[in-house]
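Progress narrative, work stream C.
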Amino acid sequence: MAILETWCPPSREHWELITFLWQFFPVLTIFQWLQSWYPAGKTSTDSRLNVPGRIGWATMEAPGFITLLYIMYSLPKTEGIEELPWANWVMAGMFIAHYIYRALLCPFLNPSISPMHIFVWAMALSFQLINATSIGGWLGGFGPTTREDWQGTGPRVEVGMMIWAVGLMFNMYHDDELREIRRAAARNQKRRQGAKGENQKGGKSVDKVYMIPENGLFRVILFPHYLCEWIEWCGFWLVGGWTCVPARIFVVNEVATMLPRAVQGKKWYIDRFGHERIGRKKAIIPGVV
C-alpha cells in the first residue's frame, strides 16, 4: 500500500524528478557560507523553538533508513520485480547500518546532546527523506534489477565495501573521542561532588566541557569524523558504480553541507581557544582546508 500515491514509493517519473532536483541542493548551502547561525551542537542557542537533543537527533535521522526500507519492499511490487539482486540489499544494508548507528545508538552513547532549533531539525529531516527516496528508488527498481546488471562488478564492490567499512570505523572512533571528553567531565564532576559530600540522586546533568581533541586525525584536523563520513559514502558510491547517480549526489550534497560547518567550526575553536592552541590544524582536509 502506497503511503503517498506515486510519491512514496515514487513512480519512475517522480523519482527522476526528485533525483534531478536533488542534485541542486548545494546551491542552498551557499547560505551556510554567508552566515554562521547554526543553532545545534556546540553552537546551540536558547530558544522556545528548540527540540531536545536526543529526541531531535533520533527523529531527524531515523526516517531516512525507514523510508529506504519501505521503498525497497514496496517498489518492486509496483514495478513487477519478483526479487532484487543481492548487491542492492548489500548497499541498503550499508546505508541502514550507518543510520542505525547515527540515529539509534549515538543519541544514547553521547553523555549529553545540546538542544537543536526546530529549523535545523526540519532541514535535516527533509534531507533524509529526499535522499532516501532518491537512493531507495535506484535500489528498489529504477537501477539494477537483475544479477546480470551486477555481473563483473565483484572487485569494485569489494573495494567499495572495504572503503565504506574503514570510513565507518574511523567515523565511530573519532565520534568516541569526542564522547570521551564528556565522559571524563562526568567522572570529574562526580569526584568533585563526592569530595563535597553532595548527593547526586537529584539527576543533575553533566556540565558542558569543551576541549581540543588530540587523538587520531584530531592531531591534524578538527573535524575528522566529517572527513571519515565522506570516505564512507565514497565507498558506498563505488559499490554502486558511476551510474549510481543518487549515491554520487549524496556524496556531493554531504560535502556541500558539511564543509561550511567545518570551516565555521574551526572559527568557533579559534574564538574559544585562540590561534596558538589550534596551531596549524585544518578544519577537515589535512593540509588543505
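Work stream C, second folded protein:
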Amino acid sequence: MVQSYDKIRASRIFHDLLRLLQFLSAVISLGLFSHRLRQIHRLERRTTTSNGAVEGILAAAVLYTLTLLLMRCLLRNKSVPKLLRWLLIALDLAFMGAFIAVAVLTRPKGELASSPGVIQALAVS
C-alpha cells in the first residue's frame, strides 16, 4: 500500500513539473518572440499578420498553462469530472498543433513571419 502511494505521489510531482516546464516554455517563447517583433517593427515600421498570429498563439499558451497550474492547485485532492478531463486532453492536443504552427510560421528562410531583409539586419546587429 505504501509503495502504491509513493508511485501516485511521484506521478503527481512529475505531472506538476511537466506543466511547470510547459508554462516556462510558453513564457520564454512569448518573451523572445515579442522582443524579436519589436526589433522588426523598429527596423521596418511594419509587421505581417503571421507575426500577430504567432504572438497570439504564444499568449494563449501562456494563459492556458497558467490556468491549468491554478486548477491543479485548487483541485489538488478533489475528483475532476470526466468531461473536463477529456476537454483538457483536447486542448493539450490543440496547443501541440499550435506550437507546430508557430514553428512553421517562424522557420528561417520561410519568409512567413518576417521579410528576408529583416532577418539579415537582425543577424548583423
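The chain is about 80% helix and 0% strand. No further action is required on this item.
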